[in-house]
Amino acid sequence: MQRYSGFGLVKHALSHHENWQRQWRNPTPKKQYDVIIVGGGGHGLATAYYLAKEFGIKNVAVIEKGWLGGGNTARNTTIVRSNYLWDESAALYEHSMKLWEGLSQDLNYNVMFSQRGVLNVGHTLQDMRDIQRRVNANRLNGIDGEVLDAKGVQELVPIMDCSKNARYPVMGASWQPRAGVARHDAVAWGYARGADAHGVDILQQTEVTGFKIRDGQIYGVHTNRGDIEAKTVGCVAAGNSSVLAKMGGFKLPLESHPLQALVSEPIKPILDTVVMSNHVHGYISQSDKGDLVIGAGIDGYNGYGQRGSYPTVEHTLQAIVEMFPIFSRVRMNRQWGGIVDTCPDACPIMSKTPVKGLYFNCGWGTGGFKATPGSGHVFAASLAKGEMHPIAEPFSMFRFHSGALIDEHGAAGVAH
Amino acid sequence: MFYIYCPYCGEHREEEEFHPKGQAHIERPKEPEACSDEEWGNYLFFRDNPRGVHHEMWVHAVGCRKFFNMTRHTVSYEILETYKMGEQPSITADSQNPPRETVPVSHPEGVRA
């Protein structure tokens, strides 16, 4: 792998930047691998990267039906935080946060991780009680957090309407200074480049059409480019997980919904943090390019179409204008949707399945991007050892039969 | 934007008057106490999530406030029919053979956000 550095940049300038190495190969599928990862998004690529780098399993294929990071990895609003309520999810997202903090160095790829802080705004007394409870829980778990009053919020975000005259007056917020945003495409590309350098085959335009299962044990997959064998298969397919589970002969407690996001025309720097509100229901940050990045809730119906309804966009923008009247005349530039796989308890599934050797990492719903490094890391550890990593253990799909749910609807940020 | 025919009002109305309410035709177990953990968990949490023809409940929230059923394609989003509670769908995944599948819409410009 060609390492990136300031010196390299100067060197390549001499040849007009025409001789940069390709970031990853485009190999022909081998007949057999040790591990197959289905799904070449952030989580899948991170899994492959850590498998090869930390667990010494380099004979790995990542199978992607489209192109790298073309799904939710490229469609999210890039927010990274770890202020979750329950111990199980706090451990998972904080593990991820710690990896984020060293990710650019680890990958030798600038993922533009910017710890500009995240505000979760409260508009009612109950919001404030929940915020206090969550921040206290976070601190007990070693996660940074503060409770701010309306004055504190106004000082951090002068352009926000914190007056008492607002329809839903801002009463305060939780503040996680270590949270922030990252460049989502760079995360997928950085992991892909790193995995490829360790010998992982990334197979794009390759669609899994079925599993090869014998006596309850998986031994390979059917694809549109022929059969590929492996005794361990990890599925990391987000919105299409239910379709894959059906091929494996079982059901997952998931529903796929469209989740929409939009960006405005680029404007001068005006918002230097991330503002989220569960109550008026919208979230907003400003990208380095200057566009406001805006998102909110899912469309309520099931859908695989990567698009949603206009009323949802309208409600999203109503919430944003409610908090930021100053943005009322900013024009929106682009709008799109992704398919998110929501789980009944708003927590992911990282689990063994009824098929031996077949593992699923799914159900991240609306909040998967922030977990990319941690999810990949603990899932890789689980695939390598054949036993779920202690952090992944509570997220078994069988919790919906045992009743040990992890109810994160409060901290998930988006109503499901 | 959906334009939905409410089988009770007998009119097409805009999507904003309605709310989706999840999978249709789920039957509560007759004797919950007799259910195993697996059966009860399946009833509570495990839903059909097909990529194709789907039957779901909707409520005409700011209209007649009645629940009804809808058969809809989850990729093309095409509404194939709506029908009253207690009725059975006339269109199913099997009757739609080969299933209607439109080309998935991609938004390549979206990846630059």
Automatic annotation (TrEMBL), chain A:
Stretches assigned to the Rhodanese domain: 35-79
Entry similarity comment: Belongs to the SoxB family.
Pfam families: DAO (PF01266)
EC number(s) per entry: 1.5.3.24
Protein's name according to its UniProt entry: Sarcosine oxidase subunit beta
Gene3D superfamilies given in the database record: D-Amino Acid Oxidase, subunit A, domain 2, FAD/NAD(P)-binding domain
Gene Ontology MF term list: nucleotide binding; sarcosine oxidase activity
Biological source species: Halovibrio variabilis
Protein origin, superkingdom: Bacteria
GO biological process terms, semicolon-separated: tetrahydrofolate metabolic process
TrEMBL record, chain B:
A Pfam family per the record: SoxD
Ranges in a coiled coil: none
Region: Disordered, residue numbers: 88-113
GO terms assigned for molecular function: sarcosine oxidase activity
Signal peptide: none
TM regions (residue ranges): none
Entry-linked InterPro entries: SoxD, SoxD_sf
Biased composition (Polar residues): 89-99
Annotated protein name in UniProt: Sarcosine oxidase subunit delta
The organism of origin for this protein: Halovibrio variabilis
Gene: soxD
